[in-house]
Structure formats: structure tokens, C-alpha cells
Specification:
- Pfam families: FGE-sulfatase (PF03781).
- Residues 108-318 form the Sulfatase-modifying factor enzyme-like domain.
- This is SUMF1/EgtB/PvdO family nonheme iron enzyme.
- Strands 1-4-9-5 form a 4-stranded antiparallel sheet. A 3-stranded mixed sheet has the order 7-6-8. It has a two-stranded antiparallel ribbon with strand order 2-3.
- Helix 2 (39-46) runs antiparallel to helix 3.
- The protein has 321 residues and is α+β, with helices and mostly antiparallel strands.
- The model has no long low-confidence stretch (mean pLDDT 96).
- 25% of the residues lie in helices and 11% in strands.
């Protein structure tokens, strides 16, 4: 594949111009029993890796209509991440092999070179949200603050009633910062966006996994273009893709802003790739999305918002204990 930034959105996603079906036309038709069970049971089904994706997706869809108990705007569920000295980044010698492994997705060597060199860092203890911020949570922020930062994914700025438990996208990084600051004021807790290093540690664990679940890309563990429904999914319906600390969707669904603007790692080289050329300074994002291939699901992958609809930009919260 050519550089995806030179292709149409569908071509960049590896899709033909004809219709591509990834889900059933009536996703609840074969799972009508889920319409009569408590929300707690629906959560258990949605987060059960032994269930089929179709059934997990159906359970999450019902939760999006009746109310998802995992969503608590003032008390988002968090995971504790202990302090550690962690090894982050990518050894220079690995750039060529990683690029070759993902060349079919249009990956270019400078994009991977941004991950170099590998380095060690002492990361203090912090907390990471189990889920990215959802449409329902972001709606409350908009209602409370009167902000005009409406997500471009909300067509005409209209709230998608059936997608309350899907991640919000696309908003600018300043809106993500404002959300975290608003919630910190409301609750008196130290909510913020995670630093880039915190995000990578939370996704990869102390052992520095390539993906949140291990060393090999497995398409059915994340909502990426390889396996997903070509749309956002309810939070937590890819349970086999959880991070070592229990966070969901760190490899797919929507890309996630961090608190950091791009700069080279210690001892690294400034990379003037597509993002630097078109945007100048830009906020680092991590994690894959439903519109992108699994290369973005790598825990070390550094990227950002290139202003096209195919870039589905969301965020999750961190908290200082």
C-alpha cells in the first residue's frame, strides 16, 4: 500500500469502493434474549472473551440504549499502575523489521523511527482509566460548560442517542485537556491526560509488550480495520485485548491523545514526517482505531491528528494519586 495519507479514506483502510459488510444488518435479531436481562448481566456478556464477538457487540449495543453501569462520569473506573523504572521506546536496530512487517499498511520508516531510541524512565505511580471517555460522558461536559467543541463524529452536532457507551471522537486535544480540567474541578481529584510515557507503560506493562496482550498482533483482540465493524464499538467488547493493568481498548477503537507534544526521545532524532510537515508542533496520540490497521495498535507507536475523517481521535483519563 502507498502512504495512506495520499489515498482516499476507503483506500487507506484497504476497502474497495463497493459496500463492505462487517456486521449483521440486524445485530440484535439473533440475541433477543439480551433485551430481557439486567444491565449487570449485559456487562458480563460484553466482557466475556468466551462469547462470540457478535454476542458481545449485541450486549454492548443494548447497554448503549438502556444505560451502561460502567459509565460513571464523576467516578470513572480506574486501574492502579505502580511506580516502576520502565524501558520505553524501540531499539534503532528494530526499525527496519517493524517497517517491513507493516509495509502492507503503508507504514514508512520515519514513522517507526520516531519510536527510537529505547530508553529507561522512572514513572511514579498513577491511575489510568479502564475505558476511553465516552459520548455520554462528553455530553455531560458540554452541557455543564457550554463548550462549543462538538465532536465531528456527532453529525451536525447532534448527540448519537444509541452510542452513549462508545468512545467520543473526533475532538481537538485542547478539548480533551478541558474535559480533564473540568472533571478535576467537579470532583476535587487530580484528573488529567496521561503523559506519553504513562500511556505506553499502562498499555505495555512492565515487560514492555508489543501489544497490550502480547508480542503478536491478533486481529480479533482489538477494534482495528482488520477485524472490527468499521465503526466504533461499545467500551470493553474486546476483553481479550485488555492491557496488563486491566484497561480496555488501548489497542483499538479510537486513537487517544496524551498530554505531550511530539519531541524526540532522549538521544533521538527529530523526525519531519507528514504530521510535522503539515501541522508543525502536534500532540502525540497513542493506540489504534477502527479506521486504521494494527500497526497503530502497537504500544510503542507514536502518531497524532492528521486532519482527515479517517483519524478518529479520542482520549482517556489518568489521575495522580
Amino acid at each position: 500500500m502507498a502512504n495512506p495519507n495520499t489515498l482516499s479514506d476507503r483506500a487507506a483502510m484497504g476497502l474497495l469502493d463497493t459496500f463492505t459488510a462487517r456486521t449483521e444488518p440486524w445485530p440484535l435479531r439473533d440475541h433477543r434474549d439480551l433485551l430481557a436481562v439486567p444491565a449487570k448481566t449485559l456487562v458480563a456478556v460484553a466482557e466475556d472473551p468466551a462469547q462470540s464477538f457478535a454476542r458481545r457487540y449485541a450486549a454492548g449495543t443494548v447497554l448503549g440504549l438502556v444505560g451502561d453501569p460502567r459509565i460513571s462520569p464523576d467516578e470513572p473506573p480506574m486501574a492502579d499502575v505502580p511506580a516502576a523504572r520502565v524501558r520505553l521506546g524501540l531499539p534503532d536496530a528494530a526499525v527496519a523489521s517493524v517497517t517491513a512487517r507493516w509495509r502492507h499498511a503503508g507504514v514508512e520508516e520515519p514513522w517507526i523511527a520516531k519510536e527510537c531510541p529505547a530508553y529507561e524512565l522512572d514513572v511514579p505511580a498513577f491511575r489510568i482509566a479502564l475505558h476511553p471517555v465516552t459520548n455520554a460522558e462528553y455530553r455531560r461536559f458540554l452541557e455543564d460548560t457550554g463548550s462549543t467543541e462538538l465532536p465531528s463524529s456527532w453529525r451536525f452536532g447532534s448527540y448519537p442517542d444509541h452510542l452513549g457507551n462508545h468512545p467520543v471522537w473526533t475532538v481537538p486535544p485542547e478539548a480533551a485537556d478541558a474535559y480533564a480540567a473540568w472533571l478535576a474541578r467537579r470532583t476535587g481529584r487530580a484528573f488529567r491526560l496521561p503523559t506519553e510515557a504513562e500511556w505506553e507503560y499502562a498499555a505495555a506493562g512492565a515487560e514492555g509488550r508489543e501489544f497490550p496482550w502480547g508480542e503478536t498482533f491478533t486481529a480479533d483482540r482489538a477494534n482495528t480495520v482488520e477485524h472490527g465493524p468499521l465503526a466504533t464499538t461499545p467500551i470493553g467488547v474486546f476483553p481479550a485485548g485488555r492491557s496488563p493493568f486491566g484497561a480496555y481498548d488501548m489497542a483499538g477503537n479510537v486513537e487517544e491523545y496524551t498530554a505531550d507534544t511530539y519531541r524526540p526521545y532522549p538521544g533521538g532524532t527529530d523526525i519531519a514526517d507528514d504530521l510535522a510537515v503539515t501541522r508543525g508542533a502536534y500532540r502525540i496520540a497513542r493506540g489504534g482505531s477502527f479506521t486504521r490497521f494494527g500497526d497503530l495498535a502497537r504500544c510503542r507507536r507514536r502518531h497524532g491528528w492528521y486532519e482527515r475523517e479517517i483519524y478518529a481521535m479520542g482520549f482517556r483519563l489518568a489521575e495522580t494519586p
